[in-house]
Amino acid sequence: MADKSSSNAYWKANIKTIQLFLVIWFVVSFGFGILLRPMLAGIKIGGTDLGFWFAQQGSILVFLVLIFAYAARMNKLDREHGVEE
């Protein structure tokens, strides 16, 4: 069993990772897809404007990338703190 300070460091790193990934997800989905959509309307990608792309596909694709990045980051944290499966 890991000691209390190691456990606290693990959870602190875990919460920091979660916060970072939630901020990225928020910025991409809400920021680019909704708030910045009018500014991105002039940029074309795949036959449509970039704001529409972020609102319809981009946020979903970024979310999928975040899932895999989170899993990789947590595996690394688990190894660093000795709590891997």
UniProtKB/TrEMBL annotation:
Q: Does the keyword Repeat apply?
A: no
**Keywords for this entry?**
Membrane, Transmembrane, Transmembrane helix
Domain called Sodium symporter small subunit: residue spans = 8-84
Which superkingdom is the protein from?
A: Bacteria
Q: Which InterPro entries match?
A: Na_symporter_ssu (IPR019886)
Is Transferase among the key words of this record? Answer: no
Segments passing through the bilayer = 20-40, 52-72
NCBIfam families assigned to the protein according to its UniProt record, in alphabetical order? Na_symport_sm
In its UniProt entry, what is this protein called? Solute:sodium symporter, small subunit domain-containing protein
- Source organism per entry reads Thioclava atlantica
